[in-house]
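Troubleshooting: if your tokenizer reports a length mismatch, compare against these two reference records.
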Amino acid sequence: MGFMIKFENLAMVAHTIVSRIVVWRFVKFIHWDYMDQKMNVYIWDMDETLILLKSLINGTYAEAFNGSKNVQTGVEIGKMWEDHILQICDDHFFYEQVENCNMPYLDVMKQYDDGRDLTDYDFSKDGFGPPCDDLNKRKLAYRHRSIEQKYKKGLHSILDQDMIKSWRELSDVTDSYTDMWFSAAKACLEQCAVGNRDLASSSSSAVATNDTIFQHVNILVTSGSLIPSLVKCLLFRLGDLIPSENVYSSWEVGKLQCFSWIKERFSGPNVQFCVIGDGWEECEAAESMRWPFVKIDPRPSSYHRFPGLTPKELGHYFSVVYGESDSKDNDRLAPSGS
């Protein structure tokens, strides 16, 4: 599928480029006095954590319920989601063209983007393909910029009404089948991100009086390819909670490398990290970084799953590594009655 562009030693290419970009992203994102403000960075896995897909398609999600859920219904739901993801990727996000050019995040090609106006640019006729020279890297950067713009606008700006209706119906069916897993995961992200709204609305006088202000950031690090992962964020209504610049693909570089970039991007004495996922790779990477790790398990008897997981519980994991004050800080994010 698509043009075959060989990015030799992609990990080295990404590693070289990221060193030039990380400072730009860091300065763009962070503007606070570390002595007065704290940041909690939540690093989420995608599949079988924020969403269920593989376990629906292979039937393992339903089988864990010992007959109370219809396996075939779950398989059909999963395949419908898979069809939607692939269709949107190919029709609107250049996936056929860039499938073999996976990058760890969108900004990694930014140095090749000359800022050209893409309003009337014809992506189907620009000759994008091998060799992997600066010209084609620029064309890839154009595609990444276009994808970023579409991501910010959301799917309602590109899908027709029939597709939107089908999407809504599938979302409702899925939530019903999974006992509100998807809605509960989104609600947890919203509660984790509430600190951003507090920070945005805080007056300068509050900072001047040395009141501590807490910022909470959601990051996605997925082992899947970048473009389908971005589309998943939009389809599962996570785009407003995880901006495109916070989506990382560990497909080639591994999760430990992504975590290292994130630590460099959000470095500071009052920045704390917590990893939430279901797999061994993110668990080992979190251990290597000495960050707390929360293990998600879709089985109905598991301790951490959706619905169930809350920012208050995540705060307890923060407190194990960073001290008791974090548990109290995260209590402020929990809705009343939690």
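Reference record two:
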Amino acid sequence: MNGGSDEIISQASDGGDIVIPAPPCRPGGAGLRVPVRTERTLRAAELALRLAACGFALLAAVLLAVNKETHDFLGLFVKEVRYTGMQSLVILVITNGVVASYSFLQGGRCLVSTVRGRALVSKPLACAVFFCDQVISYAALSALAGALVAAMIGKHGQAQFGWMKTADLYKRFAMQATGAIICAIVAVVAMVPVSALSAFNLFRLCGAGKARNIY
């Protein structure tokens, strides 16, 4: 047994289970001591990443929402194509709108925290942010995967199912949709370290005095 209360380690004589009590909370609730400079760097990085995710997700949604093209088939009929004609693009627009809105709100929270110089100290808030970040990230990734599959089918077709290539008929629409998908990819990539930071902010908080068993 060490002299410090935060380094007490006891071992059962028969069971062999090591019980390490969670370290007591310091004022502010954080269980892991982080240097002030590191704390500021983490807050600034989280703010930049959330704003980047917001910007690129919003750009992807706008590019797809305003994207349309009309094609004249030998003067017989005119066909206008929009993102609403492909369900995967509709889902991508809605998802990126949600990602942009959520990232904007969380970016505002990070900005206030950075200006005031206060770290995330509430465990319920840290849990809520971590959960929401995970849901938003996986939803954005799923919508992006569906849009990528649809884009590949539109580009190369699928002869086994009789699906023809449509990207050659609507080249401008295809190019703008490609740009929107690239922006969505960047937004998803930005959400990955954001999720890691929210996990770090959660797991560095103390476990409210509960011991953890290591087997």
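Descriptive notes for reference record two:
- The CA atoms of residues 92 and 143 lie 5 Å apart.
- The first strand starts at residue 10 and ends at 11.
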